[in-house]
């Protein structure tokens, strides 16, 4: 079984580092991207198995990144797990077409569980 590759996109370095550490501890290979403007090109280059995506980011928000993914023929099938501390985060993620959503602050086991479920699909 090959190691699954997970990409994390968040403008907050602390959260990016935390999720990277959690995912590596869970046995995943991790790609981090702090600039949402680079997300699509990194996805196309790195070909991750799953994207963990913050909703609230400057310049290009997570739902805009997800719209670009859904508009792209090459990466449209990429499973996306979105997260946010916002009360409307879940409805934004659902409207954008995310495969799953987790609220911040998230339970680490719940995050790993959601990632595992999405990767089994």
From TrEMBL:
Gene3D superfamilies: 3.40.50.2300
InterPro entries cross-referenced by the UniProt entry: Bact_response_regulator (IPR050595), CheY-like_superfamily (IPR011006), Sig_transdc_resp-reg_receiver (IPR001789)
A Gene Ontology biological process term: phosphorelay signal transduction system
A GO molecular function held by the record: kinase activity
Keywords, comma-separated and alphabetical: Kinase, Phosphoprotein, Transferase
Keyword Transferase recorded: yes
Response regulatory domain ranges (all copies): 5-119
Modified residues (4-aspartylphosphate): 54
Protein's name in the database: Histidine kinase
């Amino acid at each position: 079984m090959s190691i699954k590759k997970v990409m994390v996109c968040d403008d907050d370095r602390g959260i990016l580092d935390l999720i990277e550490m959690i995912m590596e501890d869970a046995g995943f290979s991790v790609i981090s991207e702090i600039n949402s403007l680079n997300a699509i090109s990194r996805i196309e280059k790195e070909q991750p198995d799953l994207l963990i995506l913050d909703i609230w980011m400057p310049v290009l928000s997570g739902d805009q990144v997800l719209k670009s993914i859904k508009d792209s023929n090459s990466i449209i099938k990429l499973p996306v797990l979105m997260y946010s501390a916002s009360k409307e985060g879940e409805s934004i993620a659902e409207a954008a077409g995310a495969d799953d959503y987790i609220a911040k602050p998230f339970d680490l086991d719940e995050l790993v569980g959601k990632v595992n479920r999405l990767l089994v699909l």
